[in-house]
Amino acid sequence: MQKKILSRRSFVKAAALTGAAVAVGSLAGCGKKGVAQSEVIKGKSKKQEILYRGDTKHWQAYFAVAK
User: Fold this and answer.
1) Sequence spans of domains, the chain
2) How far is 36 from 38, CA to CA, in rounded Å?
3) What's the pLDDT at 55?
4) Angle ∠(15,18,24) on CA atoms, nearest 5
5) pTM here?
């Protein structure tokens, strides 16, 4: 029984240390400066972009309710 408790405790301790190490490593990676983007990224999609006009009566009704 005592051996089971010690093995559980060692497992929990190892899991906590591993979790802390992963958390610190992921936070350290967030601080890196990214490469500055100087141009627009163009995709390869053949679909035409749909631009919605906001001056139709349906959009005006939506905007009025959304406020």
Assistant:
1) 1-29
2) 6
3) 84
4) 140
5) 0.36
